Amino acid sequence: MLFLYLSMIADPQEQADFEQVYNDYNKACLHEALKYTGGNQILAEDALHNAVVKILIKYPEYLKDSCSKLKSSFVLIVRNEAIDLMRKEKLRGHEAIEDYSETIPSDDIPFTEIFENNEAYEEIKACIEKLDDIYKTVFVYRYLHQMQNKEIAALLGLTERNVSVRLLRAKRQLQTYLR
């Protein structure tokens, strides 16, 4: 499959760079996809494939990112693809989406470890889960993955203003839930 992906890139140096990125991150991304597809290998591989194609379309833009941002972007795209595939399966009447909130990747540190000894962890986690999906996604990218609004906007195909408004609304919802 890697050969097919590499054929989409014209420049030999970019092919070599992408091959290195793919080899470095494909196992971690496949593992991430397996978590969100409830262990369904076929859906996880589909999610990985869809994410690789999306990355290839904008690959020159991703080359400008640092290594950790590239890995975060790769993992986040795979995660979103896996969730989308599970939603499609749910609409077709197959298994329900598993609880995919246990860990959220942030430079290889599971979200649960960050708050492991904090007694408010469960309350915060529950409040974040209550957020509407459009707000939760932006909130997670901004505060757990420490992405800038500009990066989030580019990743989600939104304007920076729209990202700012969604973050503000997410914060307001969280304040309401935490009271």
Helical residue percent?
A: over 70%
Helix-strand sequence:
HHHHHHHHHH
| Alpha plus pi helix count | 10
End-to-end Cα distance, whole Å, is 51 Å
Arithmetic mean of pLDDT: 75
The shape, in one word, is: globular
Q: How many domains make up the coordinates?
A: 2
* Gyration radius, rounded: 17 Å
Strand content: under 5%
Helix-strand category = mainly alpha
Main sheet specs: none
**Beta strand count:** 0
> Low-confidence parts lasting 5 or more residues at pLDDT below 50?
94-107
Summarize the structure in words.
By secondary structure, the protein is mainly alpha-helical. The protein has two domains: 1-100; 101-179, Arc Repressor Mutant, subunit A (Orthogonal Bundle). The chain is 73% helix and 0% strand. The protein contains ten helices and no strands. It has helices at residues 2-6, 12-36, 41-57, 59-63, 67-91, 111-114, 121-130, 133-144, 149-156, 160-178. Helix 2 (12-36) packs across helix 5 and helix 8 (133-144) packs across helix 10 (160-178). The protein is globular and about 55 Å long. Residues 94-107 have low confidence and may be disordered.
